[in-house]
Amino acid sequence: MAEAIMDRLREAGHRLHRHPHGRGDFRDRAGRCDVVMMLLPDAPAVESALFAEDGFAAALSLGALVIDLSVLPPAEASANASRLGDLGVPLVDAPAVAGPVIDLGGSDAACARAEPLLRLFTDGVVRAGGPGSGQRARLIRMSVGKLSDMKMVDRKSDDPDGLHRLLRLMAFDGPAESRLGIS
Q1: Tell me, what's the pLDDT at 81?
Q2: Please, which residues have CB within 8 angstroms of residue 126's CB and are 6 or more apart in sequence?
Q3: DSSP code of 81?
Q4: Helix (H) or strand (E) holding 113
Q5: How far apart are CA 67 and CA 95, in angstroms?
Q6: Which long-range contacts does 39-42 make (Cβ < 8 Å, 24+ apart)?
Q7: Between 20 and 30 A from 58 (CA), which of 127, 143, 147, 151?
Q8: Segment 29-34 long-range contacts (CB within 8 Å, at least 24 positions apart)
Q9: The pTM is what?
Q10: Exposed, middle or buried: residue 22 (CB in 10 Å: 0-12, 13-18, 19+)?
């Protein structure tokens, strides 16, 4: 999935830096980027990439944006957003899972910056709320899907995505930054 995402971003003219674990020499490159995207396997890998002794969070410049495409527990995403916020760096949790929608969690300003970049590789971007909300919405969407698969939910109801109908009305207005770092 990471390769396909990077291909789309390159096609749109973005310069990318890649490191398989987001640590070490990547720290210096991340410090020169306006946006860093992560797609890591689990919460410990994200924690390490961001906050380990050689993690990149401390190298980020004030106002840089982190977009975390990893699948994490909502509490972990919220905690990471808080820690990065203390450094002056907003985080958007946007779990990239198989399916037509990426749910965004983060501040309005951070999500507005992230959305145009995410739309380069997915058509479905939905603002779910504050930090951790992208992960919570993913869990809700998965639960609704499982119930539907078990024929417990009538998919012909007037709003099968209930929670997201209202969220689709929200507007985004921020420009995307031109330089990305991807882990």
Answers
A1: 97
A2: 101, 102, 103, 104, 137, 164, 167, 168
A3: H
A4: helix 108-118
A5: 9
A6: 39/1, 39/2, 39/5, 39/69, 39/70, 39/96, 39/182, 39/183, 40/70, 40/183, 41/70, 42/70, 42/71, 42/72
A7: 127
A8: 29/181, 30/56, 30/59, 30/60, 30/181, 30/183, 31/56, 31/59, 31/60, 31/61, 32/61, 32/179, 32/181, 33/60, 33/64, 33/179, 33/180, 33/181, 34/64, 34/65, 34/177, 34/178, 34/179, 34/180
A9: 0.74
A10: buried
* Sheet of 180-182, strands arranged across: 124-129, 101-105, 91-93, 65-68, 35-38, 180-182
Alpha-carbon distance 87 to 174, whole Å?
21
Please answer whether residues 128 and 103 qualify as being in contact, where contact means their C-beta atoms are separated by less than 8 angstroms: yes
Residue type, 106: G
Give the pLDDT means over successive 10-residue stretches in the chain (183 positions): 70 67 68 88 92 90 93 95 96 86 94 92 89 91 61 44 38 35 42
Q: For the beta carbon of residue 109, count every other beta carbon within 10 angstroms.
A: 14
CA atoms within 13 A of residue 136's CA, in its CB half-sphere:
14
| DSSP secondary structure code for residue 20 in this structure | S
What is the per-residue pLDDT for 98? 67
